[in-house]
Request: fold
Amino acid sequence: MSVGLKASGPSAIDAAEPSNVECAPSLVSIIVPCHNAGRFLAAALDSALAQTHPACEVIVVDDGSSDDTPTILEHYAGRVVRLRQENRGPSAARNVALRAAAGAYVAFLDADDRFMPDKIARQARLLDACPEVGLVYTAWRFIDAQGSALPGEGRPRAEGDVLPALLLENPTHLVSAMVRKALVTEIGGFDERLRGCEDWDLFLRLALRGTCWARIDEPLWEYRVHEAQSHQDVRLMLTTAIAVLERAFADPALPAGLRGLQGRALQNAYLRGAADCWRVGLREDAARAFHAAARARPAFLAEPDTLRRFCRFLMPAGAQRQAAVVEDWRRVVGTLCAAVDELFMRRDLEPEIAALRWRTRWSVARTAARLLRKRLTRMATS
Reply:
């Protein structure tokens, strides 16, 4: 399905707007869950209140914070809707805000990130002009804990019927999205049992019900990379990612033609989990996840493209791009070799995986050679 918005930047949106109809701006509810995020909360709320869209409400749910969050929120009295609950997690906090939201559209802002001033206006304008679109999302930039720019951008590409791509990975963040509130309400909001990957779960359930996506291929918010992010609990993230996928593939609404993607989808989730565990020093967990990826789809072991993707996963958030991998090629290749070595040393290795031993070694060698070649080229031209 295509919504005819393939061009990037303002021209795509302007072309979609009716030129001869004056309408009142749609109210957008900006939902901000926070738990002990006082260090960054003011910057997030200031960015929400600085939006150029003339019809916004900002709803903040303090999810049982024990830091200075309540004191900070006092400074925003009268400018934001303030709610509080005992600590029940971000999904429950967002659902509380959804029930209080008056907007036709909802946008989501994490308490450590920032919107750019025209984010809400650009997204609302597109939803107003395209009633067939249920969700519009944008690219993003990376910033550090101090708010300074980091290299790289996130630029998702899928639009229209995104379900096939979404089954293979979550291509974006919840902060990227603006969605029609009615669609979120119809599917029951966020799953409060999940303490990770709740955004991916929501996106999948929306896509399974036929929600059409559109994109704005321009960074309109800033993703803050810092040491206290919730996704640092890599075991939890891996467990919930697998649970989310298993539910999606068990959903009767899933088209039969997409069920064959399950092996590749599980492979991707386990490989990302393995890389996350390697990155934080959980070697045994990493080895188990790498083995699980091979069980889900053994063929990836002989695919240099997939091994290069695993190498990107080994880099921290904000640096999962080829240029960063090339700079850190020694460590990355060393980790890839260690993951493969540990896999083939297993005594319980399945025969279909063991049969790929030499093809895997060849693929690893090709991956290492390619990264080294790019590194030498970069050094020669710098």
